[in-house]
Design goal:
The structure is a single chain. With about 90 residues, the chain is α+β, with helices and mostly antiparallel strands. It is about 45% helix and about 30% strand. It is built from three helices and five strands. A hairpin with a 6-residue loop joins strand 3 and strand 4. The longest helix has 20 residues.
Length: about 90
């Protein structure tokens, strides 16, 4: 789903104008980004949790050449859905 479509759905369901909805979503995105950058966990009720986890350094092997290289450690955003959402998705 594109952002325009998502904005239209929220606008229609909430009664807000599309401009107000766009402002709301951009503000929400900025707040989520800021909190993830500081290491906070974001819990979205009924959906799941967003958090930053450190992925450790690891060695990979190129499948064609067999060449080994090291991928450095990095932070990555991880999403964990709530159990109810997981169960619903299993039925699809």
């Amino acid at each position: 789903m594109l952002t325009k479509e998502f904005t239209g759905l929220i606008s229609g369901a909430s009664g807000l104008s599309k401009k107000e909805t766009e402002h709301l979503l951009s503000t929400m995105n900025a707040i989520i980004r800021e909190n993830l950058m500081t290491g906070n966990t974001i819990q979205l009720q009924g959906i799941g949790t967003l958090e930053v986890k450190e992925r450790s350094e690891r060695t990979i092997v190129h499948p064609r050449t067999g060449e080994r290289s090291v991928v450095p450690a990095k932070n990555q955003v991880v999403f964990k859905p709530v159990a109810a959402l997981k169960d619903t998705l299993k039925k699809i």
